[in-house]
Amino acid sequence: MKVKWLINAVVMGCSGSVFANTGPIISGPDVSVVLDGFYQDGQRAFSNRDEGFGLGHTELGLTGSVDDKFRGVLTGIFESHHGSTEIELEEAFIETLALPAGLKIKAGRFLSEFGYLNSKHTHEDAFTERPGVYRALLGSHYFDDGIQVSALLPTEFYLAVSAEAFSGKKMDAGFDDPATVGVVAGKIETGSDIGDSNSWMLGLSVLRNGNGHMQFGEHAHDHSEHEHEHEHGGHDHSSHDHGEHNHGPAYTGRMLYGADLTWKWAPQGNYKYQNLRFTAEYLYLDDLYDERFSSLDGAPSSLSGFYGAFVYQFNPNWSVSSRYSQFDHMSNHDVHGHGDHAHGHFLDEQLKEIDFAIAWHSSHFGVVRAQVSQQDYLDKRDNIVSLQYIMTFGAHGAHAF
């Protein structure tokens, strides 16, 4: 039913212009398709990708102006998991076009502005998958139902702020009576040019998850029957192994903080022929457990991780990229009970990854990528080889900074 629904939506959008009984012609929305296919030998921790051939983050999108005051976006996602195709509505929102003072309001389902990567579609990345800290704390990319207010401030340098409120269902740790507005988030980012060839941007983000404590025992939901759902949030993580299928974050806490820095270089600001980009992010998850479990052996109150990545496009058709990422976390062992009867222990874990990729760009819309990765996790070192293509056709807007 979901497949038929999305196809019908596209057909209606492509059917051309229609005349209303009165008034001007209403044109159909722009249609875009992003095809993401891959072959992968090996699996990553906290990843949704299977080994072998698979369908990655393939997108079908509709965008268009409602009138001179509103714009609408609809994005459906197709992915393959264990031989079946899963479909999810990633974006379905409206946003204002004509508010004064640089203000913009967005409402519906959309990607949070938290961090540098999260607000971007995954096909914009220079690697086959997002770094481990993103996969563990944001489910690779966090999107939800809610509202966002943002403003581009009238300064001589770039300065933007945003505030968001979400349902928080994708980050619900299993509360019996979750908050209606489960997540609130905010971000401030600034940047500027340095001469004609260099530019930089710095961002600071915060996210408060009202349903974000992990709970055990009789106070937690039984998630076993919901593991296949995309709304699935925090859960028992002792079984997180390479390639375990999970669409939500692996760990949730009360507060998530982020800092990101991006620097770009291109000769005289012309990115077409040559450019270099460096991006680094640090994420810190705090207030992780209920106070009832803080006395258990090894129970942490926070987790953290970071990554740093270089991407160098040395001519219009070829680019190379490298990335190091690390996520310091824990796994729980035999934690059960509740209140004063809770007992068990936790063990420190560390996920380290090194990625090297080379990509051939047939144009701005076509990429074929080969990547080699080394993952150190659970006292085991794995080498992962990936081949990927990303092909975009139809209307497609410019990528963000």
Automatic annotation (TrEMBL):
Residues 1-20 form the signal peptide. SUPFAM superfamilies: Porins (SSF56935). Residues 218-247 have a biased composition (Basic and acidic residues). This is Zinc-regulated TonB-dependent outer membrane receptor. Transmembrane segments: none annotated. InterPro entries: Porin_dom_sf. Keywords: Signal. It comes from the Bacteria. Residues 218-249 are annotated as: Disordered.
